[in-house]
Amino acid sequence: MITMNYFKKISTPWLLVLFSCLLVFACKKDQYYFDGGKSNPIFPGTTMEYLKSNPRSFDTIVNIIKIAGMERQFNEDTLTFFAPQDYAVALLIKQVNSTLFTYGKDTVKTLTDIDGLIWRRYLSNYIFKGANKLNDYPQIDVGAKAIFPGQNYVAYSGDVFNIGVRYADAGGVKYTGYRQLLLSYIPNVSQPLDNWVSIPITSSDVQPKHAVVHVLSTDFPFGADPQNLIQDVLLTK
Amino acid sequence: MSVFKIKIWFTACSLSLLLLAGCKDEVKEFENPYAGGKLPLGLKFNASSLIEPTQGIANDVVTVSVIGAEQYKTQLHFQFSGEEAEIVSIAGDVVKVKVPAAGSSGSTSIQIGDQVFFGPQFRVFGKISDDPYFKAKIGANNTIYDAYKLKTGKYLMVGEFTDFNDKGIVLAIKKIAESTYEGEIQRTLQLGTGVVSGYLSAVTSSTNDANIFVAGNMSAFDLKGPIKNITRLTSFGAIDLKQVDSYSSKNGGPTYPKLTVPVFNGGTDAPIKRIFHFNNGIIAVGGFKYYISHRYDVGRTFTYTSGNTTLTGYRDSLVRDSIPIRQVVRFRLDGSLDNTYHFSGGTTLDGGNGNILDAVMQADGKLVLVGAFSKFDNKAAGGIVRLNTDGTVDDSFQVGNGATGYITSINWNSTTQRFVLTGVFSSFNNHSIQNILVLKADGSIDDAFVSGNFDSGYPSFAQQLSNGLIIVSGNFKKYNNVRRGGFMILSPQGGLAQSYNTLGELTGTINRVLEERNKDNKRSIVLLGSFRKFDSQAVQNIKGLVLED
């Protein structure tokens, strides 16, 4: 019999070596995985200091805050800041300059070429009263706004935004996956369910002193309503 | 026991040992990362009993059922389309509010602190409403740029649409439609397939509608060409064609047929924006740099052998002549270039140093151009200039320095004798005027009109009606701090015309407003343009309204 011959060929010491190998190495399969633990959401400083501490993402935003003259708010106010990243400003400036070029105006070279009041107006679109973390916001499903509507808030600028938490699906089961904040600009309050511009958040719940910062994804130009921003810039040129 | 059996036992024992003691994973309990959080305010519009009544006029008291309203009695603000309303009473879930004077149709909402709750739609009635006689309810499937009234009383509408009121299924309606004022498609003109590829942006006619002229961006009309952006139609609406000798038909005899080509032999190298008829000429305005005409009599003669005989053959070439022109050109009625208009010493004048965005012609043939230029024909011009009938700059037009910015639209009303301009500018002729202004016929500012303050956007179109009211559209959201989204009607003084501003928001732009009296002899207007939603209703680029006096 083949089986018998097979077993006979393998001697006992060999088997022992094999099993001891198994025993020694069997439960080491998780070695590559390092649990970094929970990241610390608390930042020991003001919102402004947090933004300054991360120049890779926010040094342009810090400059805009300075030009807009809003350092006081970012140092003192209890606020929720949906922080656009530097790349969002780059996207905006590209659009601004192509429009300025079309109308034969000087293009923007430095951030100060755009009036501080304009920066202030559109930066205020991202600032909300009170410090709110992800779990302070209700669920949003942009495909079923009637059931999971999120909550609408008036930003510092006076424009209305919807803020909600998107519950992702996990393994095909609805709403059981990870949760992600979604900031949606409502362009028209008399048709409040139409034409939302929804920006997802890449990291949420960063907590500097008396404030919460949620970092926005970079795929959207700065300002929430960039077309109007561009026209405002044109007007000042 | 054989050695073999011992081995089997040994193996079995070791394996079970492995199974039992091997990989006992530590079971960790994680805390719920999403637990906690602030409680919602607990305020909600009652979906089962909505607003009562659902429509009304200013100062009507309206009842709304809002769950949890009583606990926020002191903090609660109620709004109609973003306009604050006076709260009459809150008892339990029943909220009574008064429709604000500046309220317009749209969503109601409640604001508590910085949180906003949107409620049901409410329709505000005023002196403006849908025209009951208007028939183009479906509308055009794409932008309408212009309309021109023929002496038959019917209108020719042109644009980018390929269907009008779903009537194109029967016979194609492409980029041009003959319609009554009420928006009913007519078939008296033989427009054929119109413009299949490209679009039409302007239409006019010569004296007594002897010929109709259409212009835009096209190379053929009713599949016939060659055309370079402008052509002429007969009074029956068919493209005006003639037969010409080609090189081959001239030299080769009857075996070579003559060519059938458009009578209007002229055009431009880039799309035309506006055309005007004056004194047996067509003046076109656009972003073009060359006048183009066709020559059909060019070709070559060649010989070929068939067996032992040598035969002669002819081939035609289509030659395009181009002559530099800048932004403005005058065609004669056969399409030939009038090189006395906007020309000097045989060459074109320079035109503007930026785009021309709109133009109107006065009854005396003088042409007013607006746009994004600061110089025209080497003279300083703040986005506006008037040309004499020979195309030279008219210095008697009193616009001075013009606009600091650019002007997007201009319209002329012959009844009120006023121009209305819109744009993105902060001053005009050294007066601080924002975004909209009214000029007298001589170009001086009409001081009776005081422009208000636009918020979040600008007007892109304004046209004055013969009763003085001014229709304005754009992407603005507020005017003088009253919420008006994309559409408003101003009084001749520049304020929001009382009770004419109750319609909901317009999403899009208006390109033209037609004004007539409807069958009830009421003032009625038709808005043409590029819009999909108006007053909370889906509309397609055309809308008829009635204005009560």
Helix-strand blueprint:
The complex is a heterodimer of chains A (237) and B (549).
Chain A: H1 2-9, H2 12-25, H3 47-53, H4 55-68, H5 71-76, E1 79-83, H6 86-102, H7 116-123, E2 127-129, E3 139-140, E4 151-154, E5 160-167, E6 179-185, E7 197-206, E8 211-216, H8 226-236
Parallel strand pairs in A: 1-8, 3-5
Antiparallel strand pairs in A: 1-2, 4-5, 5-6, 6-7, 7-8
Helix pairs in contact in A: 3-4, 4-7, 6-8
Chain B: H1 3-21, E1 44-45, E2 55-56, E3 61-67, E4 77-80, E5 83-91, E6 94-98, E7 106-112, E8 115-124, E9 128-130, E10 144-149, E11 155-159, E12 176-179, E13 198-205, E14 211-218, E15 230-234, E16 241-244, H2 247-252, E17 259-262, E18 267-268, E19 272-277, E20 281-286, E21 290-306, E22 309-324, E23 328-332, E24 343-344, E25 347-348, E26 356-361, E27 367-371, E28 375-376, E29 379-380, E30 384-387, E31 403-413, E32 418-428, E33 436-440, E34 454-455, E35 459-464, E36 470-474, E37 478-479, E38 482-483, E39 487-490, E40 506-517, E41 523-534, E42 537-538, E43 542-547
Parallel strand pairs in B: 2-8
Antiparallel strand pairs in B: 1-3, 3-6, 4-5, 4-7, 5-6, 7-8, 9-43, 10-11, 11-12, 13-14, 14-15, 16-17, 18-21, 19-20, 20-23, 21-22, 24-25, 26-27, 27-30, 28-29, 31-32, 32-33, 34-37, 35-36, 36-39, 37-38, 40-41, 41-42, 41-43
CATH class call of chain A: Mainly Beta
Whole-angstrom Rg of chain A: 26 Å
Tell me roughly what share of residues is in helical segments of chain A.
Answer: 25-40%
**Gap between N and C termini of chain B:** 116 Å
Shape of chain A: elongated
| Number of helices in the DSSP assignment of chain A | 8
Indicate the overall shape of chain B: extended
What does this structure look like?
The complex is a heterodimer of chains A (237) and B (549). Chain A has 237 residues and is an alpha+beta fold. Helix content of chain A is 36%, strand content 19%. In chain A, strands 1, 2, 3, 4, 5, 6, 7 and 8 form an 8-stranded mixed beta sheet that branches. The termini of chain A are far apart. Chain A has one domain (62-236): FAS1 domain. Chain A is elongated, with a radius of gyration of 26 Å. Chain A has 8 helices and 8 strands, in the order αααααβααβββββββα. Chain B is mainly beta and 549 residues long. Chain B has a domain at 44-125: Immunoglobulin-like. Chain B contains 2 helices and 43 strands. In chain B, the strands form 13 sheets. Chain B has an 8-stranded mixed beta sheet, with no helix packed on it. The radius of gyration of chain B is 34 Å and the shape is extended. Chain B starts with a helix and ends with a strand. At the A-B interface, α1, α2, β4 and α8 of A face α1, β7, β8 and β32 of B. β4 (151-154) of chain A pairs antiparallel with β8 of chain B, so a sheet runs across the interface.
